[in-house]
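Exercise 7. Given the encoded structure of a 310-residue chain, write a plausible sequence.
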């Protein structure tokens, strides 16, 4: 009752996320991020088939000379994350298509990747208490579960093939970083002997985007949620990675809010994905949030209306 009274008096705070896609001549740095962030490429108002509250967690793939952007769409009607897709011919202008994956549980963080002739998606599926791998039945609109990789409530599982072995970095509640490995994509998967690699640290444990191999180094991005959810992203360089060893070093704070009242990313950023197009050209996708305050009854009415018309 106390919480309800407080909400009625103080109102609701919503984090409204939007997505920006832009080119870069190198692996991302803070200077070229600042030069390309005038307005978002995709936002909730672009979604036409559901009542969307926000869009977030963008991942890019290139297929048949087109660019495809997969991302979380928070559906106000179902009060869950669902996976949507947008398409671009040039990586600059994006056209929203539709929701391509929904479940009875929340979905987000749809990392897409290609293996041979097959296209896979590894989203966050904590509501299923399992880490589930999906495969495109008809790309990009139809997906089916290919297999369960392992059980557990893991946040933002991020997969990479590095030195002939598959690795998954994943967070868990309380600020822990877990590491899994396998010789084959479909498993069996084993947890690293030192996992969890980091415990009780919300600043550097939850993944914030696809792992990037650049030259001889592997880099990982991590959400900084120590002050509040979705504040910023940090970059780490992995120096040692084997079944028995792990070592990394922090490179820099790479994404953050601007504190500018009119900015769509005023209050924080928490995700980045990078697609290498050529040796000196990348396509980069990030998200950002602006917190808005709403009357509790207006927020509740909006939720009810969205459920009725979904």
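Solution.
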């Amino acid at each position: 009752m106390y919480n309800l009274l407080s909400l009625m008096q103080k109102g609701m705070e919503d984090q409204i996320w939007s997505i920006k896609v832009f080119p870069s001549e190198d692996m991302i740095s803070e200077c070229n991020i600042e030069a390309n962030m005038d307005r978002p490429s995709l936002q909730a108002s672009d979604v036409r088939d559901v009542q969307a509250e926000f869009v977030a967690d963008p991942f890019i793939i290139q297929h048949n000379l087109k660019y495809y952007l997969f991302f979380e769409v928070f559906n106000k009607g179902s009060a869950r994350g669902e996976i949507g897709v947008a398409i671009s011919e040039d990586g600059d202008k994006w056209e929203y298509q539709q929701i391509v994956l929904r479940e009875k549980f929340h979905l987000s963080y749809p990392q897409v990747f290609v293996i041979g002739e097959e296209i896979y998606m590894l989203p966050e599926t904590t509501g299923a208490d399992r880490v589930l791998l999906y495969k495109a039945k008809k790309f990009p609109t139809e997906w089916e579960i290919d297999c369960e990789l392992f059980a557990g409530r893991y946040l933002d599982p991020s997969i990479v093939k590095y030195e002939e072995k598959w690795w998954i970095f994943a967070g868990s509640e309380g600020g822990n970083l877990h590491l899994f490995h396998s010789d084959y994509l479909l498993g069996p998967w084993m947890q690293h002997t030192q996992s969890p690699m980091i415990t009780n640290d919300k600043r550097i444990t939850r993944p914030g985007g696809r792992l990037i191999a650049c030259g001889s180094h592997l880099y990982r991005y991590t959400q900084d949620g120590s002050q509040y959810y979705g504040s910023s992203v940090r970059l780490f360089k992995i120096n040692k990675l084997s079944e028995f060893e792990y070592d990394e070093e922090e490179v820099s704070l790479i994404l953050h809010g601007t504190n500018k009242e009119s900015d769509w990313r005023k209050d924080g950023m928490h995700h980045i994905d990078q697609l290498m197009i050529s040796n000196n050209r990348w396509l980069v996708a990030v998200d950002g949030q602006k917190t808005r305050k709403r009357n509790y009854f207006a927020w509740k009415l909006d939720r009810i209306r969205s459920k009725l018309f979904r």
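Remark. Residues 203 and 227 are 8 Å apart (CA to CA). Students should compare their own answers with the one above.
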